[in-house]
Design goal:
- Helix 3 links the parallel strand 3 and strand 4.
- This protein has helices at about 20-30, 45-55, 70-80, 95-105, 115-125, 135-145, 160-170, 175-180, 185-200, 205-215; strands spanning about 10-15, 35-40, 60, 85-90, 110.
- The protein is about 50% helix and about 15% strand.
- It contains ten helices and five strands; from the N terminus they run E-H-E-H-E-H-E-H-E-H-H-H-H-H-H.
Length: about 220
């Protein structure tokens, strides 16, 4: 019986102004069978250029860098329509700086002292479509959403199926997992997600997840 072909490797771009950090990340990630480091950048501006050139699946992005920081680089990537999933790297003391990054479209964040195996897992998770949102930062985001005028339209226009999909997004499910849970095709799930974002006037899955938490659509609510 022929062996199954190997899965495509997750292409990762490292963006950090410290060469030692980039070297350490590369050393660890390159021993992962399913992850390939395709390039590095020393600041946000170079990171945007490299992301456009190399088309990575995931960008591991530091927040605080000289010149163009991680948040501004993320905004530029989104303005360019770059589809890479961006995983922010931050320290515990920089929690509130994560909020603008998530609003700009980051798929989540990890702390700089993360265990190497957990980092690899986080990369796989955001690549699969998950949103990595820790409770303490989710609380800050929700508080700001409550204070902001508007912040998404009402959910009365959502169909029952769209509400189910939205609840599963908030629970951290990828499109593939949602498809399995609801016995749908991934293409159908993608259509539902697009409709949800359009109807609620939201930019991405992170905002959708926050909307669902605020309106009690999660399994844990």
């Amino acid at each position: 019986m022929a062996e199954a072909p190997p899965r495509p490797r997750i292409r990762v771009l490292l963006v950090d102004d410290h060469q030692v950090v980039r070297r350490g990340l590369r050393t660890f990630l390159e021993v992962q069978d399913d992850i390939e480091v395709v390039g590095e950048a020393a600041d946000g501006e170079e990171g945007v250029a490299r992301a456009e050139e190399l088309a990575p699946d995931v960008v591991l992005m530091d927040i605080k860098m000289p010149g163009t920081d991680g948040v501004e680089a993320l905004r530029r990537l989104r303005a360019l329509g770059n589809p890479a999933r961006v995983l922010i790297v931050t320290s515990f003391t920089e929690q509130r700086t994560v909020v603008p990054a998530l609003r700009a479209g980051a798929a989540g964040y990890v702390y700089k002292d993360i265990d190497p195996e957990a980092l690899a897992g986080a990369i796989r998770s955001v690549h699969a479509g998950h949103v990595l949102l820790q409770p303490e930062v989710a609380g800050v985001l929700l508080a700001q959403e409550e204070q902001a005028p508007g912040g998404g339209r009402g959910g009365s226009s959502l169909t029952e199926r769209e509400r189910e999909v939205l609840g599963l997004i908030a629970d951290g499910r990828s499109n593939r997992e949602i498809a399995r849970a609801l016995v749908l095709s991934e293409k159908t799930v993608k259509t539902h997600v697009s409709n949800i974002l359009m109807k609620l006037d939201l930019a991405d899955r992170t905002q959708a997840a926050l909307w669902a938490v605020r309106h009690g659509l999660t399994d844990s609510s």
